[in-house]
Amino acid sequence: MSGSILYIHGFNSSPLSKKAQQLEAVMQQLGLAERLRIPELHHHPRQAMAQLETAIAELGTPLLVGSSLGGYYATHLAERHGLKALLINPAVTPHQYFDGHLGTQRNYYSGEDWELTLDHVQALAELEVPAPADPGRYQVWLQTADETLDYRHAERYYRACALRIQAGGDHSFQGFAEQLPALLAFAGIARGQYAALDFSVF
Which of 29, 42, 87, 194 could form an S-S bond across to 71 if both were Cys, CB 3.0 to 4.6 Å? Predict the structure, then answer.
């Protein structure tokens, strides 16, 4: 399905995150809700990847939009399937961060408690891929004041890709709604469909 989008949320996040909700509201406003999937991902990477593969099969050739850990998942899937990906403050080699955070975690949105184990870390390591071979399929949006991830890791890893680096901001990516026209264009949605939309209201 051309112009379709698969949004991949981050670690301990959900479809209720602000960016996911803003994107969903815009797609509904445009009458394109059926072209968007925002799965509520399982905390284990192997089960999350199975969910994402199912969504890709439903959508055909979606633009992958990945935030934080979702950016890591999106990169793996974009390389596997030859898809385009738009990454927002993406995690690079997240398995290297998680070693020190094993144990009980809580999802920020659902309140679910779960255990981060070495098996999670190993599963994440198995998804690592070399830097993108076809950087034209990628856009990478970074904000320098990301308090969770050092944006310079992503800047180095994705250096051949189209980088949009904004001073300030935070890990959630401030001003996301105002950037949505660029996302829609990258997804292949005709500008005429959203040119009259006021994105500041989302």
Answer: 87
CA distances from residue 117 to 44, 102, 124, 189 in whole angstroms, order as listed: 9, 6, 11, 40
Give me the helices (H) in 40-173, please. 45-59, 69-81, 95-98, 118-126, 151-157
pLDDT tens digits for range 110-162 = 889 999 999 999 999 999 999 998 899 999 999 999 999 999 999 999 999 99
Contact criterion met (CB below 8 Å) for 173 and 143: yes
Indicate whether this model's pTM tops 0.85: yes
**113-to-8, 10, 48 alpha-carbon distances in Å:** 20, 16, 17
What pLDDT is stored for residue 97 in this prediction?
A: 83
For residue 24, how far is the Cα from the chain centroid? 14
Instruction: Tell me the CATH number for domain 5-131+163-201.
Output: 3.40.50.1820
